[in-house]
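re the bet — no i am not wrong, look at it urself. input seq straight from the record:
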Amino acid sequence: MPEPIKIRAVQQGESTEIRILLQHPMETGLRRDQASGQKIPAHFITTFTVSAHGKVLINAQLNTSIARNPLFVFQSKGLQPGDRVRVAWSDNRGEQRADEATVVAA
């Protein structure tokens, strides 16, 4: 099972800063294993969604050019302490992960 998504959502004034760390190998399929010389198969996140109150805040399509264990930081308005933020991703191998975090006051 994929590693948990690390999410931190902190309200700062009228906006909420949402920090998301997706723990994923993000292999491009172009690198070679140094020991065997064989290509390492592609393994990367293809879709990434952030939602709150049942509404999508961010819907992204990713590709092989994203770094391993990518960190994303966003600002959002309309969230309050106690609200739940849901983050979900799926990858090119069909693996999926979704986690939630509660917005806290700064």
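see?? The first strand starts at residue 6 and ends at 12. told u. also DSSP finds no helices and eight strands in the chain. so pay up
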